[in-house]
Amino acid sequence: MPGFVTEAASLAHAVEVIQRGGLVAFPTETVYGLGADARNPAAVARIFAAKGRPADHPLIVHLASAALLPSWARKIPAAVPSLAAAFWPGPLTLILERHPDVPTIVTGGQDTVGLRVPDHPLALAFLEAAGRGLAAPSANRFGRISPTSAAHVRAELGERVDCVLDGGDCTVGLESTILDLSRERPRLLRPGAISAEALAEVLGELPAGRDGHSPRVPGAMAAHYAPETPVQLLDGLQLEAQAAALAAGGRAVAVLARRPARHPLPGCRWLQLPDDPARYGQGLYARLRELDAAGCDRLLIQAPPAEPAWAAVDDRLRRCAGREVKVPDTLFD
Q1: pTM of the model
Q2: What integer pLDDT is reported at residue 6 of this predicted model?
Q3: How far apart are the C-alpha atoms of 248 and 251, rounded to whole Å?
Q4: Which of 50, 239, 263, 319 qualifies as a FRET site for 10, CA 20 to 30 Å off?
Q5: Which of 236, 282, 238 is nearest to 259 (CA)?
Q6: pLDDT over 50 (residue 330)
Q7: 8-state DSSP, 8
């Protein structure tokens, strides 16, 4: 029945839902995606309605293999085969000139399209069985915390999604790196697990950063990935002092840090993530959801180090707190 979320959806059922224009949430290595047939404008429109997503916010199309690129991109730059060989399947999205057959609802009205091959066995099996590209943003309400488990999808979207494929927890936990190849020089438009340095090893140069002519891409708004609890991003010295001050004033406080609290803080819920960018990113959204559900008045987050390895985490945390996103100067030439 429409709107019903299956508890243990089969692959065959998921494919049938896609074929009839429905929505299927499926796992990738980054986050869970909310998928629809990317060639079916009516089905894609359901994604925007389910998420409350602005119509000019483009979607990423997920493919079963790089061999399908000519059906989705009008021009394949010379660097693409090497990038695909190095990073696909994997958390890299390439922005290319869209093929004329790609519906403009997918691209937010732009002449570019985001494409990637996800690195998750269930996602790849689903894409192969469906036999089509799937437009799939994160399976959550627009602007909210991205889901990294099937339970998160159910809590976020409920009956707005027709089927949920449960592939366990996501292994990367942060959205893909987005590299724009639609213009003369490669540009990194969203940091992710694949770093600028790793891309440079294939490209032969560090990608430039976003400029005023860069296409719109997912996750680029100043406020994004946000819990309902108000967020403050603080350095290590400020963190404990602010938590103690708020708790002393009778406020319920949640803290997400990379170290334990040095002193007991009554009225404070303190969670710790590893002091390692990859492991931190993997657990970030799940911990944010846990703390958001605690019903606290304020969520304090320890700011990450100003180092290239933490660029993706820093990007998500700054948007989560609704703060200006600053890319470290060392990230680009």
Answers
A1: 0.92
A2: 42
A3: 7
A4: 50
A5: 236
A6: no
A7: S
